[in-house]
Every structure is written in structure tokens, then in C-alpha cells.
Amino acid sequence: MFNWHFTDTKLAAEGFIIPDSNTTDEDVVWSIGQAVDFLSSVKKDFSGKSKEILGKSLEMRNLIHFIGDLH
């Protein structure tokens, strides 16, 4: 979850290439999208409604936190 709290603008001087090992697609923008997708999902949890509510509650907390990080 380390990369989920910020986003980097990948810049390099002309003629330089950023190695793939230094880049990731999982940043704060990605994590906000994941949280929104999870919260808007209408999939039912077969093990019980309380687990679904707990999951959405935790994801809402993450969403609020990540938006605060981005701000």
C-alpha cells in the first residue's frame, strides 16, 4: 500500500529512459479508482451481509484517506 498514498510524475531528461523497475501503475489515482469501483459494486457477498458492510466501510475509509493524500 506504500505507493497508494501518492502519485509520481515520471520525468526524465531528454535522451534518458526511466527503467520499468522504477515505475508502477498502482498509485493514489489507481487506488481511488479501485475504491470507487468496489463501493459502486452491487455484487452480493454469499457469506453474509455483515461482511459486505464491513468491506464497504473499510473501503470508504480508504477512499477518504486517499483523497486527503492527493489533496
Rough outline: elongated
How would you state the average pLDDT, rounded?
Answer: 77
Q: How much β-strand is present in the residues?
A: under 5%
Helix-residue proportion:
40-55%
Alpha-carbon distance between the termini?
18 Å
The SSE string, one letter per element, is HH
Notes on the protein architecture:
The protein is mainly alpha-helical and 71 residues long. The protein is built from two helices and no strands. Helix 1 runs antiparallel to helix 2.
The gist of it:
49% of the residues lie in helices and 0% in strands. It has 71 residues and is mainly alpha-helical.
Pick out its properties:
elongated; 71 residues; single chain; 2 helices; mainly alpha
Topology:
Layout: H1 28-40, H2 49-70
Helix pairs in contact: 1-2
